[in-house]
Amino acid sequence: MNAWLQFLSQHEARIDDSSGTPLVEFTRPAELPRNFMAPLTDVGLIAATGEDAASFLHNQLTNDVEHLPPSEARLAGYCSPKGRLLATFLMWTSADAIMLQLSRPIQPAVQKRLQMFVLRAKVKLNDATDNHAVLGLGGPSTAAALSTWFPALPASPFAKIDAPAGSLIRLPDALGQARYQWIAPLAVAEEAWPQLINTFTPVATSLWRLTDIHAGVPQVTQATQEQFVPQMINFELIGGVNFKKGCYPGQEIVARSQYLGKLKRRMLLASVETTDVRPGMEIFSSADPGQPCGQIVNAASNLQGGIDCLVEMKIAAGEDGTIHLGSAEGPALKFGMLPYPLPA
């Protein structure tokens, strides 16, 4: 258990690492608090340093890294040569590094794979997870509560502000709330925590992931690596793919999916009245029960006792029948509206 987890465990947090990923839990609220914060202990951080860091990552990822300004964060994907996502990142620049945030369980393998292609480039990839505390914050009182550390809030999604207290990134809104991510040095986070709890109700990591789901922002996890071309999980619709940049692994297939033919699979928002839903679980259409029509991308418990999830599926399957979890006889999925439009 690292220093940040130890600190949280001393401040009424329960640490659940039964899944191999440390998840922070607090008393679960009956509804989303007006102002809330969640320690995001399920993410890993890779710091890329060196004079070739930007050009190296630019040639590996689906988004533009060479022209990433200090005032902005971006989504990006890392694909196999077949165009299938090995990881999804939130990336930004710090004072001396390009930071890549991804699902914590896959970080070691992804970092090792990236390292294989460094060759003669002047770049170093380091695990920066234990050097930072990552907090998700939401609610109307965020500006006043953070004024001690940040003079203003980033105004639009993926805008970023830097200060001695770390980096603050605006994330897409969800469930009617503006959301922010604060990446802070450990000492700053520990000092800030007693002040923050005067405004924000601490909530579980999983509740923050519920807001990600309602924002329509997917995360590739261990169970879904190499399952999706970026467009299958709407990654180009939320700014994760730049089609004008140069080559990267899988670029030809990603471009072909965009410009040739009609995309037959997309990611949708759904809910299901059960408690056992995991990334990678298959879903089935009642019209074609013999084979899966898609799978779960991400899932989190909602506040009504069920599960909300992002599902990748054949577009036609939803037109021809009802969709069920696990088998055609499994619990039925009810579909909702994503916060952004899908192409016709």
In short:
With 344 residues, the protein is of the alpha+beta class. The chain is 18% helix and 33% strand. The chain folds into two domains: 3-215, Probable tRNA modification gtpase trme, domain 1 (Gyrase A, domain 2, 2-Layer Sandwich), CATH 3.30.1360; 267-336, Beta Barrel (Elongation Factor Tu (Ef-tu), domain 3), CATH 2.40.30.
Structure overview:
With 344 residues, this protein is an alpha+beta fold. The chain is 18% helix and 33% strand. It has 8 helices and 19 strands. The strands form 4 sheets. A 6-stranded mixed beta sheet has the order 10-11-12-9-3-13. A 6-stranded antiparallel beta sheet has the order 18-15-16-17-14-19. Strand 1 (14-16) and strand 2 (23-25) form a beta hairpin. The longest helix has 11 residues, at 186-196. The termini are far apart.
